[in-house]
Amino acid sequence: MADLSVLTGGRAGDGINSAGLLVSHLFNRMGYFTYMYFDYPSLIKGGHNFTITRAADTPVGACRERVDVVLALNQDTIDLHRDLMHDRTVVIFDSGKATADGQGIPVQEILKTEQASAVMGNSCMIGALAGATGIPFAVIEDVFRKQIPRGLEKNLAVAGKGYASVKQVYRVEQKVQEPFPLLSGNEAIGLGLLHGGLDAYVAYPMTPTSNLLHFLAGVAEDHPLTVVHPENEISVILMAHGLAYAGKRTAVGTSGGGFCLMTESFSMAGTNEVPVVVVMGQRTGP
Q1: Once rounded to an integer, what is the mean pLDDT over residues 141-146?
Q2: What distance in Å separates the CA atoms of residue 14 and residue 49, rounded to the nearest whole number?
């Protein structure tokens, strides 16, 4: 395998982004360079969500126009992404929720047999992906232990059933190079802010910068860092003003709609010569 792209899709709110990230960790563990795209719909729960992971034996910085494998946890994943499939695309689907030309996995039956929660259906599909691409099950065990230690044994049992339910269609060979650190864009920005001497980060959750808030809150105890989640974006920028006035290196995070609420205070920062860094996460357009 020199270059393989995998689309993972399902209902928004069902852990699709986490499942896509596990796919990336699988390929990373096999020694491949990975690039992952998160879809960011303006939805809390319901609707459609998907990720695309590209794995290659040379560095990559974008997705390809077509995908080689589709992991479909619902029918929308198949119906909405036919334009991304080519004539050799392999579709692996939850046979209880979708129909397609490909390999159906009885996810609901497996979950019932293992008395596993619905979200563990993602583990079942990831196991099926590994089986279809020739990735050793030991790699799944290693990745799951590091990424989802809670409920590990049950997740592995479900993944094992998915692994055994498919026929191999691709061969992903183990590379000799060690896995590289796998970072999201938000985590990379967060590390940059920390290395730049960040003292305080203030944000109201808004896609796609919410995970930057989560990341910095998660590492705040290990750094001289204050992380605050106020009640709205106006409070965010005004609180950042106060911190900056007090001499703290301060950053805020938001997206388009949130930044619109910050514009007056943002202008005031320029007028008063108060340095505030704004991390602006732009959602993709049509």
Answers
A1: 95
A2: 9
pLDDT in tens, 75-125: 999 999 999 999 999 999 999 999 999 999 999 999 999 999 999 999 999
Distance CA 274, CA 43 (A): 35
Indicate if 118 and 70 belong to the same structural domain. yes
Q: Which of 171, 193, 195 is nearest to 253 (CA)?
A: 193
- Considering the domain architecture, whether residues 159 and 193 belong to the same structural domain is answered as no
180 is a domain residue: no
**16: domain CATH number?**
3.40.920.10
Domain that holds residue 254: 185-280
Model confidence pLDDT, tens digit, residues 220-233: 999 999 999 999 99
| pLDDT value at residue 73 | 95
Q: How far is CA 73 from the centre of its chain?
A: 16
Instruction: Please report which confidence band the pLDDT of residue 44 belongs to, taking 50, 70 and 90 as the band edges.
Output: low
